[in-house]
Amino acid sequence: MRKQEKKNDVMVSACVIAKNEECNLPRWLDSMREVADELIVVDTGSTDATVALAEQAGARVFHFTWIDDFAAAKNYALDQARGRWILFLDADEYFTPESRPRIRPLLRQAEQSPQTLGILCRLVNVDVDAGWRVSSAIIQQRIFRHRPDIRYAGAIHESLTIPADSVRLLADDITIYHTGYSTSVAQQKMRRNLALMQAKIERQGAPEPLDYGYLMDIAYGLGEYRKAIGYARQLLSYPELSEDNRGRAYEIWTSSCIEGKFPEAETQAALTAARAACPEDAEFVLMQGLWLYELGDYLTAEELLRQGLTLHERRQREQQCERQAGNSQSVSVTALIDNAERLLPSVDWRLGQLCQLRGDRDEAQQHFLAGLQRHPHHSGLLGDFLALLRDIGATETDIIEILNGLYDVRHDAGWLAQELAQCHGGAVYIYYARHAGRSLTSDSALMAAGRYRAAACQAAAELRQIYGLATWSGQADGICALIPPRERWHYAGMMR
Amino acid sequence: MNIAACYIVRNEATNLRRSIASLRECYNQLLVIDTGSQDATVKTAQDLGAVVRHFAWCDDFAAARNFALGELSRLTPDTDWVIFLDADEYFSAETAGNIRNVITRAETAGKSALLVSRVSLETATGEVLSEEPNLRIFALRPGRRYMGRIHEELRDGGQPLDGLALVPRGELLLYHTGYAREVNRPKAERNLRILQQELQEAQKLATPEERQAAAGRLYMYLAEACRGVDDMDAALRYARLDIAQGRRNVVFASRSYHLALGVIARKLEQTEGLRQYELLEARLRLARQAVQDFPELPELAAEYGGALLSVGELAAAGQALERALAIHQPANSLEPRQFTAAQREQVQQLLMHIRQAQQRQVFITAGLICQDEAAVLPDWLADAQQFADEIVVGDTGSGDGSADLVRAAGAKVLDLSLGNAADFDFAAAKNAVLAAAAAVPEAEHWYVFLDADERFYHPERVRGLLQLLPGAVQGVQVPLINVDTDRLGEEIDRVPLLRLWRARDGRRFIGHVHEAVYDIQPDGSLSAVPAQTLLPALAVCHTGYATSKAVTKARRNLVLLEADIKAHGEQPRHWRYLASTCYGLAEYELAAHYAELAIKRGPEFVAGQREMYSVWLSSLRLAGRPEAERIAAARSALEAYPQETEYQQELDRLEAFQSFDDWYAGAGSGDSLAKKLSERWAGLGQADREQLMGWARERGHWDVQAALAALEDGPDIPASHLVQLAAAGERNQVTSELPQAFGQVLRELFAALYYQIPVAEADREAWLAASDVLPEPLQRVLLRAAGSSQALTGGHFDAWQSGLMALAQGSAATLPDWSRYAELAADFAPDWALVERAAAELQGKGALAAAFELLGCVPAAAADGEFWYRVGVSLYRLRQPGAAECFARAAEAGCPERSLAAYQAWSAEERA
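Structure tokens for the assembled complex are given below, as produced in the milestone run.
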């Protein structure tokens, strides 16, 4: 834990409520240790290593009996905190490494103006299972003063009540990553939320406008696109709808059409409506461009992608000017959310591919590079970038040098090795696998070293083992059916 | 100058006295290290003025010698040179007086280590066995230490010695008597144990270079030790490893060649002629490499000559043998002198034999009858042209231009396309060919009759081998090797067949269908061609059989059998055929049933039961029947055929599994299991260890596998992460992780096998064994890629596509051979839409040129919009001309591809 630098420095408490979070908590603890003076972990009944992990990390651990009320648990955590500022992130959220050093200076600055009670930062959903794909950004208040009048309310979708006259700073350079909606956990969580939501609506008799927003998110998350569109349109029918909620509703509507592979005309109509409603938003122009790329309409796609990019850059510049002029209060919330940003890596990727199709390798390379700088953990971009480098005759040493410029070997070697194992990494793979401490006798490593015979021998042994495990598990009929007939007898004993 | 003499001894009283005497008191210090003598050794040494020290033997020669060097430095720190002899060595009376002079001169010349010629004498007879230089005298310097538990070598700070010099044998000569011709087995076993330990230690060194150097030093000794314990295969393997390192600058570096050639010669003696072909080839290759690495050694040149002669390469054999006589091993050679006078004489005799053979007039007629063999005829003709003086081909009615091919090759063609195909007389046709051959009374006239799908592995040897044959030999059998063209030419079986014979009146083909050559006696009776001999070097490859054809044949036979059974009811005589047929159709339960019936019925003819037992045992295994049943079957098979190793192996494996079962039942779990396993593992040899691992896997004893992985000297356990989970009973977790692990292993295995294509012959067995584990459709794709004749069908498209993914995704440094992979998709013809889909998939992976090549197989009539679009995409992205035209045609043909418009616009732009 960081030591208090000066006696009069702000005192920061990081709080979390957790139940069986042994997978996520280490990341939270790591991120908070750099920023906070004390760590408060309120355990609501874990049966895994959550408590042990927290204690090891030097956190103050408290137990709170779960009463189906998020706000109660969170307020209990607030009661334990001793700091003047609170960082309240969920266990599956953490500050990005770049954001961490910016937090304390910001708090020191906020200390100067007593009416500043909270700081708004960006929260980005990342999908750990899809190569850390950044999905969408929302604005959240997770940093606030520790005061008795700032408390949580609401059993689910609890929110922070904060005095109405307070000033909140917008900190667009502080980003929280939220991994909770990764494909693997999302479904489960969505179902849980849906149940809670339905119970709430039943209690109150009819849905409130914002309930449609939650229902829409849940339906979309569960892949029930028709329903999601229905809720989105319900939400849009409210005249009082805030700018960011409207954007969100259009986003779900169009995304549902695209991901649900709805008829082209219907998708086209949704996109047109979205663009008409939010003419300043690059997001929907880019979405349309990406969608048309998938359909193979390369000409229009390229045009829209370039147009959307220009629009986005122009708005960025405008915001920049406002900020430099000191009008930070006037920076609009929508600009902060900037959902076009989540699309940029894909936009760079597709534009790069289009350039490559047309034989313009230089521009393709620029796009791939820009995309990777925005989103280093994008498998598709990396794969195409590497293929391009090889095409233009880059040696393995060149490639390692370029990648070392883009990545932090200490942190990214593992991810790079994993990707390079899928795109003819060869010696480059071995380099990063070694740095990541991966086995150099794995099938991938043997293949990368050109030791095909050894790789085949080893892989065959593994395959046999897997046949055995599949037979033993008794639930892997798909694999068992593929065992060649002359191999089956090996596992006959296990089946009896 | 201070000279010390040093010995390490145990129970050597007699030898030690003789050896020390031969030093003629040239030393200033005499040190004897005793490792536990029970005879008068110690007393003898002390009587002779030696300082005696004791050293507890620890299976480490270097340790003992280094101990001696250390003692010496302590006793007489001013020692300049050391003479380090074995007790069973002594200097020859003629040279013993020269020791001090030789050392003084070496010192002056800046040398610091001396190799002394050592002659080994057979203990009993005093016969000279070999002579080789050995390091026995060296300057004592700091950092000079021995390395190696056995066959220890002196090193300078770990590096090979500098300042090495060979003492001319006239100046110093050692005699060595410890050498006996008979192998000392316990000693070889001890050596092998120590060497294997050292090899394991070598694997633990830090860098690959160190590991290689440390292991590389051991191979030749390992080879000798393995030979000493009669493990010929291992001896050969280690010798080959040593040879593969290239010539090393050590004493008797050629020993691995000598050993390997010796082992192969012994194997040749023990192998029936039918199976000698590969050994003859191996000997030839090895001997050729030996004379390249050791051009100065006459005995290796003689070996090479002998190897060439045994395969009928007369001219080359003559040259090699003449070289053996002409070269002289240099005086300063580190290699022992082994070319004896007797060998020299033998070489001269061989040379004479060759010259006589070369003068024999042999006229060879190559004959063939064929029909529609244009695909294979060019190869057959090219082969025949290498050995035959004339070629006569009877064409029985080809429509594919076979006859033209034959004529173009300058061969004689007989038109035999008469008669009705149903009762075609093969014998008559072949006899017509024989009759058309030239008459050459002045020469030895031979006929060579191979079928169109039969080829000599070495046609150039036919003439030489015939010239070498004794005049009495009338017919030559060749080993005919049936290979499976569906499985990379894997051997199915081999049979000896009469394919060459001397021309003689009345020697002709008999039999309409299964025609064979007979001698017709004056009285009209038939007799076999007399004095036949088998020539192992003249092996023939027959490609007529294949897995796919075997299945077709089995199906056809089943239809015939069923018809017969329908007509006459199921009879006992049907059982054996039903068993074989069901086995061929992978109906193992039925095959086992009928095989058992056939066996119980008793033999119909002599050779019959063995095959039934084999079918029975294999079927029981493949059907996954209980082991008790299989053990009983294996026992009864062994009772009937006690010599059959296949049955013995089956029984051994089953019994080993049972013994592991018994052991496991009493091994407990957790720590108890780990401890018991560690003990059991330590006591097992390599083969048994593998059996144990297989047992644990097939039984699903994940706890055993996890415990094995945890052993210090334990094996690598495949998919160990999943095994750990399974050992912990996490069935659901395993189930959820399996699909991903499965997919990944499939991709890796597929790619690892594909990248080995074309598969080297030496790797074929391992390659097939690994590919046999893959799901069948993937196997088929790989086998086809590796050259199988069995074409893919539309049903294999998914497997082909999975393979494509595997190849596009791997970690291999190079991209796969896309062109070969694309070619496989041509099998989907005439489903041209599928071919086009394959081309699209290839383009998606960036294999543009390969996709273009593949599209080349689509006929003009089938060229639709999609075809032109795909061709255009390849051309456009390869920056080749013509893309715009293709896109225009695609548009014209109504191609629905959305991106066509973009491509049209881009390609038009580019053209402008």
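Chain B has a mean pLDDT of 89. Residues 731-754 of chain B form the longest helix (24 residues). Further analysis is deferred to the final report.
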